Amino acid sequence: MPLTGKQRRKLRAMGHALDPVVLIGKDGVTEGVKEAVDVALATHELIKVKLGPAAGDDRHDAGEELAAGTGSELVQVLGKVILLYRRHPDEPKIEI
User: Fold this and answer.
1) How far is residue 33 from each of residues 54, 70, 71, 93, measured CA to CA in Å?
2) The domain 5-83 belongs to what CATH superfamily?
3) Rounded to an integer, what distance in angstroms lies between the CA atom of residue 29 and that of residue 11?
4) Where are the domains of the chain?
5) How much of the chain, in percent, has pLDDT values that exceed 90?
């Protein structure tokens, strides 16, 4: 189910205080990066992913690829930071 504008605003506000938990390096979005994002989403529900200075991927394309590859929602792309959300299936921590 896609996020509404109000839900995205709330998640962006919550994501403001978060630190990036996954870094995308010069190889771009690899299977290892997708696995790391998947594990982080299972733990935290809302995460930041940072594109390193050598990352060659377009930031919007990288965000969409990560969201599609992990079954998450792309909340925001701001600068070199991607904000992703995936609701925990059993014990959701974030109420939106």
Assistant:
1) 15, 10, 14, 23
2) YhbY-like (3.30.110.60)
3) 23
4) 5-83
5) 83
